[in-house]
Amino acid sequence: MTTSSPGGPDRRAGDRGDLLDPLCPTRQLLDRIGTKWTSMAVKVLAEEAPGELRFAELRRRVPGISQKMLSLTLQSLVRDGLVARRVEPTVPPAVHYRLTELGLSLERPLSALRDWAETHMPEIDRNNRLAHRSAANGEAAQ
Predict the structure, then answer these.
(1) What is the pLDDT of residues 5-17, one digit of tens each?
(2) Which residue from 100, 97, 103, 84 is spatially nearest to 55, judged by alpha carbons?
(3) Which of these, 7, 8, 32, 73, is most buried using a 10 Å CB contact count?
(4) CA–CA separation, 76 vs 69, rounded Å?
């Protein structure tokens, strides 16, 4: 655990963050990488690695994502260095995306989280139905 303040002037590159510190930038990073769209984009790009995907193909492989949301997700991943963006100077420009080594290192933990969610979804659904029934019967949640 670091003793420097998370965003303060004494923070050095390479210092490990402290998630429980409200000022720690790790919280913002987890907000960005913890979205369903990020998880899906990383999964699709990892399946293509080390190759690239064009924007339109990536959008086809991520069901339900809007063009705007995919664009915002990719911008965030590029800014964080998880995805590399390559533009071909054609009309219209052909834009290609691929995972960087850092992005590839994120696939394993995200894959474990996706697997956990898919495995435990029936139990989570059951718990939600029970909670809904309890609330409908006037029982207060503790």
Answers:
(1) 444 545 565 678 8
(2) 97
(3) 73
(4) 11
